[in-house]
Specification:
The protein has 550 residues and is an alpha+beta fold. The chain folds into 3 domains: 6-223 and 342-409, FAD/NAD(P)-binding domain (3-Layer(bba) Sandwich), CATH 3.50.50; 229-340, Flavocytochrome C3, Chain A, domain 1; 424-542, Fumarate reductase/succinate dehydrogenase flavoprotein-like, C-terminal domain (Methane Monooxygenase Hydroxylase, Chain G, domain 1, Up-down Bundle). Helix content is 36%, strand content 17%. It has helices spanning 6-17, 55-65, 72-91, 125-138, 205-213, 243-250, 278-290, 309-325, 380-400, 409-423, 433-447, 454-469, 482-506; strands at 22-25, 43-44, 106-107, 117-118, 143-146, 149-157, 160-168, 174-178, 182-184, 217-218, 223-232, 253-255, 300-303, 335-344, 347-348, 361-363, 431-432, 451-452, 472-473, 515-516, 531-535, 538-542. The longest helix has 25 residues, at 482-506. The radius of gyration is 23 Å and the shape is globular. It starts with 5 loop residues before the first helix and ends in an 8-residue tail after the last strand. The structure holds flavin-adenine dinucleotide (FAD). Flavin-adenine dinucleotide is lined by residues 2-8, 25-28, 33-36, 38-39, 41-43, 125-126, 150-151, 185-187, 197-198, 201-202, 205, 239-241, 343, 365-367, 379-382, 385. Residues 2-8, 25-28, 33-36, 38-39, 41-43, 125-126, 150-151, 185-187, 197-198, 201-202, 205, 239-241, 343, 365-367, 379-382, 385 line the site of flavin-adenine dinucleotide.
Protein backbone atom coordinates (compact mmCIF):
# COMPACT_ATOMS: atom_id res chain seq x y z
CA UNK A 1 0.00 0.00 0.00
CA UNK A 2 1.61 3.23 -1.16
CA UNK A 3 0.22 5.92 1.14
CA UNK A 4 -1.24 5.39 4.61
CA UNK A 5 -4.17 7.80 4.80
CA UNK A 6 -7.76 6.60 5.12
CA UNK A 7 -7.65 4.66 1.85
CA UNK A 8 -4.26 3.01 2.36
CA UNK A 9 -4.99 1.98 5.93
CA UNK A 10 -8.40 0.55 5.04
CA UNK A 11 -6.81 -1.30 2.11
CA UNK A 12 -4.20 -2.78 4.46
CA UNK A 13 -6.87 -3.97 6.91
CA UNK A 14 -8.95 -5.53 4.13
CA UNK A 15 -5.94 -7.23 2.52
CA UNK A 16 -4.85 -8.60 5.89
CA UNK A 17 -8.40 -9.91 6.29
CA UNK A 18 -7.74 -12.02 3.17
CA UNK A 19 -4.54 -13.41 4.73
CA UNK A 20 -2.19 -11.26 2.70
CA UNK A 21 1.12 -10.11 4.06
CA UNK A 22 0.94 -6.33 3.76
CA UNK A 23 3.49 -3.54 3.59
CA UNK A 24 1.82 -0.23 4.46
CA UNK A 25 4.15 2.64 3.77
CA UNK A 26 4.03 6.39 3.76
CA UNK A 27 6.43 9.20 2.99
CA UNK A 28 5.23 10.74 6.24
CA UNK A 29 4.25 8.94 9.46
CA UNK A 30 1.81 6.10 8.88
CA UNK A 31 -1.72 7.40 9.47
CA UNK A 32 -0.60 10.95 10.17
CA UNK A 33 0.21 12.45 6.77
CA UNK A 34 -2.13 13.60 4.00
CA UNK A 35 -5.70 14.81 4.03
CA UNK A 36 -7.57 12.24 6.12
CA UNK A 37 -6.25 13.42 9.44
CA UNK A 38 -6.84 17.08 8.46
CA UNK A 39 -10.55 16.72 7.70
CA UNK A 40 -12.70 18.13 10.46
CA UNK A 41 -16.20 17.91 9.13
CA UNK A 42 -18.25 14.97 7.95
CA UNK A 43 -18.49 11.56 6.31
CA UNK A 44 -21.54 10.99 4.09
CA UNK A 45 -23.35 7.63 4.31
CA UNK A 46 -27.06 6.81 4.04
CA UNK A 47 -27.34 4.98 7.38
CA UNK A 48 -30.71 6.62 8.04
CA UNK A 49 -30.14 7.25 11.74
CA UNK A 50 -31.18 10.90 11.70
CA UNK A 51 -34.04 10.51 9.24
CA UNK A 52 -35.15 7.80 6.78
CA UNK A 53 -32.59 7.49 4.01
CA UNK A 54 -31.42 4.97 1.41
CA UNK A 55 -28.19 4.59 -0.52
CA UNK A 56 -30.08 5.09 -3.78
CA UNK A 57 -31.03 8.60 -2.58
CA UNK A 58 -27.39 9.27 -1.79
CA UNK A 59 -26.50 8.03 -5.27
CA UNK A 60 -29.07 10.29 -6.86
CA UNK A 61 -27.59 13.33 -5.09
CA UNK A 62 -24.03 12.29 -5.99
CA UNK A 63 -24.91 11.86 -9.67
CA UNK A 64 -26.73 15.20 -9.75
CA UNK A 65 -23.72 16.99 -8.26
CA UNK A 66 -21.37 15.24 -10.73
CA UNK A 67 -23.05 17.00 -13.68
CA UNK A 68 -23.51 13.87 -15.80
CA UNK A 69 -19.90 12.75 -15.58
CA UNK A 70 -19.86 10.35 -12.63
CA UNK A 71 -18.70 6.82 -13.30
CA UNK A 72 -21.98 5.35 -12.12
CA UNK A 73 -20.48 2.06 -11.01
CA UNK A 74 -17.96 3.78 -8.77
CA UNK A 75 -20.54 6.27 -7.48
CA UNK A 76 -22.86 3.39 -6.67
CA UNK A 77 -20.11 1.55 -4.78
CA UNK A 78 -19.40 4.67 -2.75
CA UNK A 79 -23.05 5.15 -1.79
CA UNK A 80 -24.04 1.51 -1.38
CA UNK A 81 -21.02 0.49 0.71
CA UNK A 82 -20.61 3.70 2.73
CA UNK A 83 -22.98 2.55 5.52
CA UNK A 84 -21.07 -0.75 5.97
CA UNK A 85 -17.81 1.17 6.45
CA UNK A 86 -19.41 3.51 9.02
CA UNK A 87 -20.74 0.55 11.03
CA UNK A 88 -17.52 -1.45 10.69
CA UNK A 89 -15.52 1.50 12.00
CA UNK A 90 -18.08 1.98 14.75
CA UNK A 91 -17.24 -1.56 15.84
CA UNK A 92 -13.56 -0.60 15.85
CA UNK A 93 -14.28 2.27 18.23
CA UNK A 94 -14.71 5.23 15.89
CA UNK A 95 -16.86 7.14 18.39
CA UNK A 96 -19.22 8.69 15.87
CA UNK A 97 -21.22 11.44 17.57
CA UNK A 98 -24.46 9.99 19.00
CA UNK A 99 -27.73 11.43 20.23
CA UNK A 100 -29.47 10.64 23.53
CA UNK A 101 -31.23 7.71 21.77
CA UNK A 102 -27.76 6.28 20.99
CA UNK A 103 -28.33 6.68 17.27
CA UNK A 104 -25.47 8.13 15.20
CA UNK A 105 -25.97 11.87 14.65
CA UNK A 106 -26.07 13.06 11.05
CA UNK A 107 -26.24 16.56 9.58
CA UNK A 108 -27.45 17.78 6.24
CA UNK A 109 -24.76 19.32 4.04
CA UNK A 110 -25.32 21.23 0.78
CA UNK A 111 -26.35 19.01 -2.13
CA UNK A 112 -27.52 16.16 0.13
CA UNK A 113 -31.29 15.70 0.20
CA UNK A 114 -31.15 14.17 3.70
CA UNK A 115 -29.27 14.58 6.96
CA UNK A 116 -26.67 11.90 6.13
CA UNK A 117 -23.30 13.29 7.13
CA UNK A 118 -21.79 11.55 10.18
CA UNK A 119 -19.13 13.19 12.31
CA UNK A 120 -17.05 12.57 15.42
CA UNK A 121 -17.28 16.10 16.71
CA UNK A 122 -16.94 19.47 15.06
CA UNK A 123 -13.16 19.38 15.08
CA UNK A 124 -12.20 15.73 15.16
CA UNK A 125 -13.79 13.75 12.37
CA UNK A 126 -10.57 13.28 10.34
CA UNK A 127 -8.39 12.63 13.39
CA UNK A 128 -11.09 10.24 14.67
CA UNK A 129 -11.16 8.30 11.38
CA UNK A 130 -7.36 8.21 11.09
CA UNK A 131 -6.94 7.20 14.76
CA UNK A 132 -9.48 4.38 14.48
CA UNK A 133 -7.78 2.94 11.40
CA UNK A 134 -4.31 3.34 12.93
CA UNK A 135 -5.39 1.41 15.99
CA UNK A 136 -7.01 -1.30 13.89
CA UNK A 137 -3.91 -1.64 11.70
CA UNK A 138 -1.70 -1.91 14.77
CA UNK A 139 -3.74 -4.93 15.94
CA UNK A 140 -2.85 -6.84 12.77
CA UNK A 141 0.39 -8.79 12.86
CA UNK A 142 0.42 -9.24 9.09
CA UNK A 143 0.62 -5.52 8.35
CA UNK A 144 4.13 -4.11 8.43
CA UNK A 145 4.08 -0.34 8.83
CA UNK A 146 6.90 1.73 7.36
CA UNK A 147 7.02 5.49 7.75
CA UNK A 148 9.24 7.99 5.91
CA UNK A 149 9.65 6.16 2.62
CA UNK A 150 8.67 8.14 -0.47
CA UNK A 151 7.88 5.92 -3.44
CA UNK A 152 9.30 7.35 -6.66
CA UNK A 153 8.43 4.65 -9.17
CA UNK A 154 6.27 1.56 -9.46
CA UNK A 155 8.33 -1.31 -10.85
CA UNK A 156 6.60 -2.91 -13.83
CA UNK A 157 7.84 -6.13 -15.41
CA UNK A 158 6.16 -7.84 -18.37
CA UNK A 159 3.23 -5.44 -18.02
CA UNK A 160 2.69 -6.28 -14.37
CA UNK A 161 3.34 -4.19 -11.24
CA UNK A 162 5.84 -6.16 -9.16
CA UNK A 163 6.87 -3.64 -6.52
CA UNK A 164 8.21 -0.16 -6.07
CA UNK A 165 11.34 1.90 -5.64
CA UNK A 166 11.65 4.80 -3.26
CA UNK A 167 13.79 6.82 -0.94
CA UNK A 168 14.07 6.62 2.81
CA UNK A 169 13.62 10.32 3.45
CA UNK A 170 15.51 10.22 6.75
CA UNK A 171 18.64 8.34 5.67
CA UNK A 172 18.54 9.18 1.97
CA UNK A 173 18.93 5.47 1.16
CA UNK A 174 17.36 3.95 -1.93
CA UNK A 175 14.74 1.33 -1.01
CA UNK A 176 13.27 -1.42 -3.19
CA UNK A 177 10.06 -3.23 -2.34
CA UNK A 178 8.75 -6.31 -4.08
CA UNK A 179 5.06 -7.13 -4.03
CA UNK A 180 2.59 -9.32 -5.79
CA UNK A 181 0.26 -6.34 -6.11
CA UNK A 182 0.52 -2.61 -5.44
CA UNK A 183 -2.27 -0.30 -4.23
CA UNK A 184 -1.67 3.38 -4.98
CA UNK A 185 -3.37 5.33 -2.19
CA UNK A 186 -1.11 8.38 -2.16
CA UNK A 187 -3.87 11.02 -2.09
CA UNK A 188 -4.62 14.20 -4.02
CA UNK A 189 -2.83 17.00 -5.83
CA UNK A 190 -3.89 20.33 -4.42
CA UNK A 191 -0.34 21.28 -3.45
CA UNK A 192 0.31 22.06 -7.12
CA UNK A 193 -1.73 25.24 -6.50
CA UNK A 194 -0.41 28.32 -4.68
CA UNK A 195 -3.47 28.58 -2.50
CA UNK A 196 -4.51 25.19 -1.17
CA UNK A 197 -5.98 23.41 1.83
CA UNK A 198 -3.43 20.60 1.50
CA UNK A 199 -0.86 19.02 3.72
CA UNK A 200 2.71 19.17 2.38
CA UNK A 201 2.26 15.61 1.10
CA UNK A 202 -0.40 16.30 -1.49
CA UNK A 203 1.80 17.00 -4.51
CA UNK A 204 -0.09 14.66 -6.84
CA UNK A 205 2.48 11.88 -6.72
CA UNK A 206 -0.16 9.14 -7.04
CA UNK A 207 -1.16 10.41 -10.48
CA UNK A 208 2.42 10.72 -11.74
CA UNK A 209 3.36 7.27 -10.40
CA UNK A 210 0.32 5.79 -12.17
CA UNK A 211 1.12 7.50 -15.48
CA UNK A 212 4.77 6.44 -15.38
CA UNK A 213 3.68 2.85 -14.70
CA UNK A 214 1.42 2.90 -17.78
CA UNK A 215 -1.99 3.50 -16.17
CA UNK A 216 -4.53 6.05 -17.38
CA UNK A 217 -5.95 9.08 -15.61
CA UNK A 218 -9.48 10.37 -16.01
CA UNK A 219 -11.25 13.74 -15.49
CA UNK A 220 -8.01 15.55 -14.59
CA UNK A 221 -9.51 18.95 -15.47
CA UNK A 222 -11.84 18.80 -12.45
CA UNK A 223 -10.02 20.28 -9.46
CA UNK A 224 -12.44 21.38 -6.75
CA UNK A 225 -11.92 24.92 -5.47
CA UNK A 226 -13.52 25.76 -2.18
CA UNK A 227 -14.73 29.40 -2.25
CA UNK A 228 -14.48 30.50 1.37
CA UNK A 229 -11.33 28.92 2.80
CA UNK A 230 -9.80 30.71 5.74
CA UNK A 231 -7.24 33.35 4.76
CA UNK A 232 -6.64 35.62 7.77
CA UNK A 233 -6.02 36.16 10.65
CA UNK A 234 -3.65 33.26 11.26
CA UNK A 235 -5.47 30.13 12.39
CA UNK A 236 -3.54 27.29 14.04
CA UNK A 237 -4.78 23.70 14.36
CA UNK A 238 -8.07 24.24 12.57
CA UNK A 239 -9.44 23.14 9.23
CA UNK A 240 -9.11 25.96 6.65
CA UNK A 241 -12.44 24.99 5.11
CA UNK A 242 -14.30 24.98 8.42
CA UNK A 243 -16.46 27.97 7.46
CA UNK A 244 -18.76 25.82 5.34
CA UNK A 245 -20.90 24.47 8.22
CA UNK A 246 -21.05 27.96 9.69
CA UNK A 247 -22.30 29.11 6.32
CA UNK A 248 -25.06 26.57 5.93
CA UNK A 249 -26.13 26.58 9.57
CA UNK A 250 -25.92 30.27 10.45
CA UNK A 251 -25.47 32.24 7.28
CA UNK A 252 -22.63 34.71 7.10
CA UNK A 253 -22.36 37.86 5.03
CA UNK A 254 -19.72 37.98 2.32
CA UNK A 255 -18.37 41.53 2.09
CA UNK A 256 -15.71 43.02 -0.13
CA UNK A 257 -12.79 45.14 1.11
CA UNK A 258 -15.13 48.16 1.30
CA UNK A 259 -17.49 46.13 3.54
CA UNK A 260 -20.17 46.01 0.84
CA UNK A 261 -22.17 42.94 -0.17
CA UNK A 262 -21.28 42.07 -3.76
CA UNK A 263 -22.77 38.69 -4.63
CA UNK A 264 -25.77 40.30 -6.39
CA UNK A 265 -23.38 41.85 -8.95
CA UNK A 266 -22.56 38.35 -10.19
CA UNK A 267 -26.05 36.91 -10.33
CA UNK A 268 -25.99 35.49 -6.79
CA UNK A 269 -27.83 36.59 -3.70
CA UNK A 270 -26.67 36.94 -0.15
CA UNK A 271 -28.72 39.05 2.29
CA UNK A 272 -27.00 37.66 5.36
CA UNK A 273 -27.61 34.02 4.57
CA UNK A 274 -24.92 33.30 1.98
CA UNK A 275 -26.61 30.65 -0.09
CA UNK A 276 -24.73 31.15 -3.37
CA UNK A 277 -23.31 27.95 -4.93
CA UNK A 278 -19.56 27.28 -4.84
CA UNK A 279 -18.45 28.12 -8.39
CA UNK A 280 -20.50 31.34 -8.48
CA UNK A 281 -19.14 32.42 -5.09
CA UNK A 282 -15.53 31.74 -6.19
CA UNK A 283 -16.05 33.74 -9.36
CA UNK A 284 -17.55 36.71 -7.51
CA UNK A 285 -14.76 36.75 -4.90
CA UNK A 286 -11.96 36.57 -7.46
CA UNK A 287 -13.58 39.31 -9.56
CA UNK A 288 -13.88 41.64 -6.56
CA UNK A 289 -10.20 41.09 -5.74
CA UNK A 290 -9.24 41.63 -9.40
CA UNK A 291 -11.20 44.91 -9.36
CA UNK A 292 -9.14 46.11 -6.37
CA UNK A 293 -11.96 45.60 -3.88
CA UNK A 294 -10.45 42.71 -1.97
CA UNK A 295 -9.65 42.42 1.74
CA UNK A 296 -6.08 43.16 2.94
CA UNK A 297 -4.81 39.60 2.32
CA UNK A 298 -6.37 39.22 -1.13
CA UNK A 299 -9.78 37.72 -0.36
CA UNK A 300 -13.07 39.05 1.00
CA UNK A 301 -14.65 39.24 4.45
CA UNK A 302 -16.97 36.63 5.92
CA UNK A 303 -19.00 38.39 8.57
CA UNK A 304 -20.99 36.80 11.41
CA UNK A 305 -21.44 39.97 13.49
CA UNK A 306 -25.19 39.82 12.86
CA UNK A 307 -25.39 36.39 14.57
CA UNK A 308 -25.86 36.61 18.37
CA UNK A 309 -23.13 35.10 20.56
CA UNK A 310 -25.51 32.55 22.09
CA UNK A 311 -26.55 31.32 18.63
CA UNK A 312 -22.89 30.93 17.62
CA UNK A 313 -22.11 29.08 20.84
CA UNK A 314 -25.24 26.95 20.62
CA UNK A 315 -24.25 25.74 17.15
CA UNK A 316 -20.46 25.55 17.41
CA UNK A 317 -19.45 25.82 21.08
CA UNK A 318 -16.06 24.01 20.99
CA UNK A 319 -15.13 25.71 17.72
CA UNK A 320 -15.88 29.14 19.18
CA UNK A 321 -13.48 28.34 22.05
CA UNK A 322 -10.77 27.20 19.67
CA UNK A 323 -11.25 30.38 17.61
CA UNK A 324 -10.89 32.41 20.80
CA UNK A 325 -7.53 30.69 21.42
CA UNK A 326 -6.54 32.01 17.98
CA UNK A 327 -7.65 35.51 19.01
CA UNK A 328 -10.77 35.46 16.80
CA UNK A 329 -14.10 36.74 18.16
CA UNK A 330 -16.74 36.42 15.47
CA UNK A 331 -19.09 38.80 17.25
CA UNK A 332 -16.53 41.59 16.88
CA UNK A 333 -14.58 41.03 13.66
CA UNK A 334 -15.14 39.39 10.30
CA UNK A 335 -12.55 36.90 9.04
CA UNK A 336 -10.95 36.96 5.61
CA UNK A 337 -11.70 34.11 3.21
CA UNK A 338 -10.74 33.23 -0.37
CA UNK A 339 -11.06 30.36 -2.84
CA UNK A 340 -8.55 27.56 -2.41
CA UNK A 341 -7.71 24.31 -4.22
CA UNK A 342 -9.27 21.66 -2.02
CA UNK A 343 -9.90 18.26 -3.63
CA UNK A 344 -9.46 16.46 -6.92
CA UNK A 345 -12.39 14.76 -8.62
CA UNK A 346 -10.15 13.33 -11.35
CA UNK A 347 -7.54 10.66 -10.90
CA UNK A 348 -6.44 7.16 -11.73
CA UNK A 349 -8.82 5.25 -13.98
CA UNK A 350 -9.97 2.03 -12.34
CA UNK A 351 -12.70 -0.54 -12.77
CA UNK A 352 -15.11 -1.65 -10.04
CA UNK A 353 -12.36 -3.82 -8.53
CA UNK A 354 -10.07 -0.76 -8.29
CA UNK A 355 -7.77 -2.28 -10.91
CA UNK A 356 -5.92 0.03 -13.28
CA UNK A 357 -5.09 -1.15 -16.77
CA UNK A 358 -1.67 -2.29 -15.47
CA UNK A 359 -1.97 -5.80 -14.08
CA UNK A 360 -1.36 -5.92 -10.35
CA UNK A 361 -1.69 -2.14 -9.94
CA UNK A 362 -4.71 -0.92 -7.96
CA UNK A 363 -5.72 2.53 -6.74
CA UNK A 364 -7.85 3.83 -3.86
CA UNK A 365 -9.04 7.03 -2.24
CA UNK A 366 -8.67 10.52 -3.63
CA UNK A 367 -6.11 9.12 -6.06
CA UNK A 368 -9.01 7.48 -7.96
CA UNK A 369 -10.98 9.46 -10.55
CA UNK A 370 -14.57 9.15 -11.66
CA UNK A 371 -16.86 8.57 -8.70
CA UNK A 372 -17.71 12.23 -8.21
CA UNK A 373 -17.73 13.37 -11.84
CA UNK A 374 -17.32 17.11 -12.34
CA UNK A 375 -18.14 18.11 -8.77
CA UNK A 376 -18.04 16.41 -5.36
CA UNK A 377 -20.58 16.59 -2.56
CA UNK A 378 -19.46 17.44 0.95
CA UNK A 379 -18.55 14.34 2.96
CA UNK A 380 -18.19 12.03 -0.06
CA UNK A 381 -14.37 12.12 -0.05
CA UNK A 382 -13.77 10.28 3.21
CA UNK A 383 -16.45 7.76 2.29
CA UNK A 384 -14.65 7.27 -1.01
CA UNK A 385 -11.35 6.70 0.81
CA UNK A 386 -12.90 4.10 3.13
CA UNK A 387 -14.99 2.28 0.53
CA UNK A 388 -12.40 2.21 -2.25
CA UNK A 389 -9.62 1.38 0.22
CA UNK A 390 -11.54 -1.65 1.49
CA UNK A 391 -12.30 -2.77 -2.06
CA UNK A 392 -8.75 -2.31 -3.38
CA UNK A 393 -7.17 -4.18 -0.47
CA UNK A 394 -9.63 -7.05 -0.63
CA UNK A 395 -9.49 -7.39 -4.41
CA UNK A 396 -5.71 -7.14 -4.62
CA UNK A 397 -5.20 -9.75 -1.91
CA UNK A 398 -7.76 -12.10 -3.44
CA UNK A 399 -6.32 -11.78 -6.94
CA UNK A 400 -2.76 -12.64 -5.99
CA UNK A 401 -3.38 -15.20 -3.25
CA UNK A 402 -1.21 -18.24 -3.89
CA UNK A 403 0.61 -16.69 -6.86
CA UNK A 404 4.39 -16.33 -7.05
CA UNK A 405 6.08 -12.97 -6.77
CA UNK A 406 7.02 -11.44 -10.11
CA UNK A 407 9.99 -9.43 -8.86
CA UNK A 408 12.53 -8.80 -11.56
CA UNK A 409 15.94 -7.47 -10.51
CA UNK A 410 16.68 -5.99 -13.95
CA UNK A 411 13.40 -4.03 -14.01
CA UNK A 412 14.04 -2.84 -10.47
CA UNK A 413 17.63 -1.91 -11.29
CA UNK A 414 16.52 0.37 -14.13
CA UNK A 415 14.11 2.12 -11.73
CA UNK A 416 16.84 2.38 -9.10
CA UNK A 417 19.20 3.94 -11.66
CA UNK A 418 16.57 6.53 -12.58
CA UNK A 419 16.13 7.35 -8.91
CA UNK A 420 19.87 7.57 -8.27
CA UNK A 421 20.19 9.97 -11.21
CA UNK A 422 17.64 12.19 -9.47
CA UNK A 423 19.41 11.85 -6.14
CA UNK A 424 22.73 13.25 -7.27
CA UNK A 425 23.50 16.54 -5.61
CA UNK A 426 24.53 19.35 -7.96
CA UNK A 427 27.65 21.25 -7.05
CA UNK A 428 26.29 24.61 -8.06
CA UNK A 429 24.04 26.58 -10.40
CA UNK A 430 20.35 26.04 -10.86
CA UNK A 431 17.39 26.96 -8.72
CA UNK A 432 16.36 25.11 -5.52
CA UNK A 433 13.48 22.72 -6.14
CA UNK A 434 11.27 24.37 -3.52
CA UNK A 435 11.56 27.67 -5.41
CA UNK A 436 10.60 25.88 -8.63
CA UNK A 437 7.67 24.26 -6.80
CA UNK A 438 6.46 27.72 -5.81
CA UNK A 439 6.77 28.91 -9.42
CA UNK A 440 4.69 25.93 -10.50
CA UNK A 441 2.08 26.74 -7.86
CA UNK A 442 1.93 30.32 -9.16
CA UNK A 443 1.55 29.16 -12.75
CA UNK A 444 -1.25 26.78 -11.82
CA UNK A 445 -3.04 29.36 -9.70
CA UNK A 446 -2.78 32.18 -12.24
CA UNK A 447 -3.47 30.21 -15.43
CA UNK A 448 -5.12 26.90 -14.54
CA UNK A 449 -7.12 27.99 -11.49
CA UNK A 450 -10.85 28.12 -10.84
CA UNK A 451 -11.49 30.10 -14.05
CA UNK A 452 -9.45 29.39 -17.16
CA UNK A 453 -9.19 30.33 -20.82
CA UNK A 454 -7.47 28.48 -23.64
CA UNK A 455 -4.84 31.21 -23.82
CA UNK A 456 -4.09 30.98 -20.09
CA UNK A 457 -3.90 27.19 -20.21
CA UNK A 458 -1.45 27.28 -23.11
CA UNK A 459 0.66 29.73 -21.08
CA UNK A 460 0.52 27.31 -18.15
CA UNK A 461 1.65 24.44 -20.37
CA UNK A 462 4.57 26.52 -21.71
CA UNK A 463 5.48 27.49 -18.14
CA UNK A 464 5.49 23.84 -17.05
CA UNK A 465 7.77 22.90 -19.98
CA UNK A 466 10.11 25.74 -19.08
CA UNK A 467 10.28 24.63 -15.43
CA UNK A 468 11.06 21.12 -16.57
CA UNK A 469 14.14 22.44 -18.40
CA UNK A 470 15.34 24.47 -15.37
CA UNK A 471 18.48 23.10 -13.75
CA UNK A 472 17.72 22.24 -10.13
CA UNK A 473 20.18 23.19 -7.40
CA UNK A 474 20.59 20.52 -4.74
CA UNK A 475 22.88 21.18 -1.81
CA UNK A 476 24.91 18.13 -0.84
CA UNK A 477 24.11 16.62 2.57
CA UNK A 478 24.64 13.29 4.24
CA UNK A 479 21.38 11.42 4.84
CA UNK A 480 18.42 13.73 5.33
CA UNK A 481 18.33 16.13 2.39
CA UNK A 482 15.19 18.15 1.87
CA UNK A 483 16.50 19.51 -1.44
CA UNK A 484 16.55 16.00 -2.88
CA UNK A 485 13.07 15.24 -1.59
CA UNK A 486 11.82 18.48 -3.10
CA UNK A 487 13.43 17.62 -6.41
CA UNK A 488 11.77 14.21 -6.55
CA UNK A 489 8.44 15.72 -5.57
CA UNK A 490 8.82 18.49 -8.15
CA UNK A 491 9.23 15.90 -10.90
CA UNK A 492 5.88 14.34 -9.96
CA UNK A 493 4.19 17.72 -9.47
CA UNK A 494 5.20 18.79 -12.99
CA UNK A 495 3.79 15.61 -14.53
CA UNK A 496 0.54 15.91 -12.62
CA UNK A 497 0.19 19.63 -13.36
CA UNK A 498 0.69 18.92 -17.06
CA UNK A 499 -2.06 16.27 -16.91
CA UNK A 500 -4.46 18.82 -15.38
CA UNK A 501 -3.61 21.50 -17.92
CA UNK A 502 -3.80 19.21 -20.96
CA UNK A 503 -7.22 17.95 -19.88
CA UNK A 504 -8.42 21.50 -19.18
CA UNK A 505 -7.33 22.56 -22.67
CA UNK A 506 -9.27 19.65 -24.18
CA UNK A 507 -12.58 20.43 -22.50
CA UNK A 508 -13.83 23.48 -24.38
CA UNK A 509 -16.95 23.94 -22.27
CA UNK A 510 -17.77 24.81 -18.65
CA UNK A 511 -19.02 22.07 -16.36
CA UNK A 512 -18.88 21.68 -12.59
CA UNK A 513 -15.46 22.58 -11.27
CA UNK A 514 -14.04 23.23 -14.74
CA UNK A 515 -15.00 26.77 -15.69
CA UNK A 516 -13.73 28.13 -19.01
CA UNK A 517 -14.21 31.87 -19.39
CA UNK A 518 -13.94 31.42 -23.16
CA UNK A 519 -16.57 28.64 -23.22
CA UNK A 520 -19.01 29.55 -20.48
CA UNK A 521 -21.82 27.13 -21.33
CA UNK A 522 -22.05 23.38 -20.84
CA UNK A 523 -22.06 21.53 -24.14
CA UNK A 524 -23.96 18.24 -24.49
CA UNK A 525 -21.19 16.85 -26.73
CA UNK A 526 -18.89 16.83 -23.70
CA UNK A 527 -20.94 14.49 -21.55
CA UNK A 528 -18.03 12.08 -21.61
CA UNK A 529 -14.81 11.54 -19.67
CA UNK A 530 -11.42 12.62 -20.87
CA UNK A 531 -8.44 10.30 -20.46
CA UNK A 532 -4.80 11.28 -19.95
CA UNK A 533 -2.07 8.76 -20.66
CA UNK A 534 1.58 8.59 -21.71
CA UNK A 535 2.18 7.83 -25.39
CA UNK A 536 5.68 7.72 -26.83
CA UNK A 537 7.00 9.42 -23.72
CA UNK A 538 4.54 12.33 -24.05
CA UNK A 539 1.38 13.04 -22.07
CA UNK A 540 -1.77 13.12 -24.16
CA UNK A 541 -5.34 14.01 -23.23
CA UNK A 542 -8.12 12.58 -25.36
CA UNK A 543 -11.50 10.93 -25.57
CA UNK A 544 -11.73 7.16 -25.49
CA UNK A 545 -12.35 5.42 -28.81
CA UNK A 546 -15.94 5.75 -29.87
CA UNK A 547 -16.32 8.97 -27.94
CA UNK A 548 -14.20 11.29 -30.07
CA UNK A 549 -15.14 14.93 -29.95
CA UNK A 550 -14.54 17.66 -32.48
C1 LIG B 1 -8.36 20.39 5.14
C2 LIG B 1 -9.20 19.32 4.53
C3 LIG B 1 -10.47 19.07 5.04
C4 LIG B 1 -11.27 18.07 4.47
N1 LIG B 1 -12.50 17.81 5.01
C5 LIG B 1 -13.24 16.78 4.53
C6 LIG B 1 -14.48 16.41 5.15
O1 LIG B 1 -14.89 16.99 6.14
N2 LIG B 1 -15.18 15.38 4.61
C7 LIG B 1 -14.74 14.69 3.50
O2 LIG B 1 -15.41 13.76 3.04
N3 LIG B 1 -13.57 15.01 2.93
C8 LIG B 1 -12.80 16.01 3.41
N4 LIG B 1 -11.61 16.31 2.82
C9 LIG B 1 -11.10 15.44 1.75
C10 LIG B 1 -10.66 14.09 2.33
O3 LIG B 1 -10.06 14.32 3.58
C11 LIG B 1 -9.67 13.35 1.42
O4 LIG B 1 -10.16 13.28 0.10
C12 LIG B 1 -9.43 11.93 1.91
O5 LIG B 1 -9.10 11.94 3.28
C13 LIG B 1 -8.29 11.30 1.11
O6 LIG B 1 -7.87 10.11 1.71
P1 LIG B 1 -6.69 9.30 1.03
O7 LIG B 1 -6.36 8.16 1.94
O8 LIG B 1 -7.00 9.02 -0.37
O9 LIG B 1 -5.46 10.32 1.00
P2 LIG B 1 -4.64 10.99 2.20
O10 LIG B 1 -5.35 10.94 3.47
O11 LIG B 1 -4.21 12.32 1.69
O12 LIG B 1 -3.39 10.02 2.35
C14 LIG B 1 -2.41 9.91 1.33
C15 LIG B 1 -1.10 9.48 1.98
O13 LIG B 1 -0.15 9.20 0.93
C16 LIG B 1 1.14 9.63 1.37
N5 LIG B 1 1.97 9.82 0.18
C17 LIG B 1 1.88 10.78 -0.77
N6 LIG B 1 2.83 10.59 -1.71
C18 LIG B 1 3.52 9.48 -1.35
C19 LIG B 1 4.64 8.79 -1.92
N7 LIG B 1 5.22 9.19 -3.05
N8 LIG B 1 5.13 7.70 -1.27
C20 LIG B 1 4.56 7.27 -0.09
N9 LIG B 1 3.51 7.91 0.50
C21 LIG B 1 3.00 8.99 -0.14
C22 LIG B 1 0.86 10.91 2.15
O14 LIG B 1 1.89 11.19 3.06
C23 LIG B 1 -0.47 10.58 2.85
O15 LIG B 1 -0.28 10.09 4.15
C24 LIG B 1 -10.79 17.31 3.37
C25 LIG B 1 -9.52 17.57 2.85
C26 LIG B 1 -8.72 18.55 3.43
C27 LIG B 1 -7.34 18.79 2.85
Amino acid sequence: MVGAGGAGMYAAIAAAGKDASVLLLDKSLVGRGGATIMAQMTVAAAIGHEEPDHWTDHLQDTLAAGRELCDERLARMLCENGPARIFEMDGWGAHWARGADDRIRQVKAPGHGRARCCYVDFLNTGPGVAGTLRRQVSRLGSVRRVSNVAVTEIVVHDGRAVGAVGMDVVSGDVVTMNAKAVVLAAGGLTKIYRRNSASTNMGGEAYALALWAGAELIDMEFVQFFPIAHLAPRLVGMDPIMWDPFRYKLGGRLLNGDFEEFMHRYGGQDSGTYTTVRDQASYAILKEVEAGRGSPHGGVYLDFRHVPDETLRGAFGPVIDRLAQNGIDLTLTPVEVAPTAHYHMGGIRVNHRMETRVAGLYAAGEAVGGANGANRLSGNAITEALVFGECAGREAATAVAGSARGWNPAAAEAAVERLRAGLTADAGGGVPANVLQRRLQDIMWEDAGPFRTGEQLQRALDGIHELRQSPVAVRPADGFNLDLQDRLELRAMLTTAEAVVRAAIGRTESRGAHQRLDFQESDARFVTNQVVETRGGELTAGWPVGQSLP
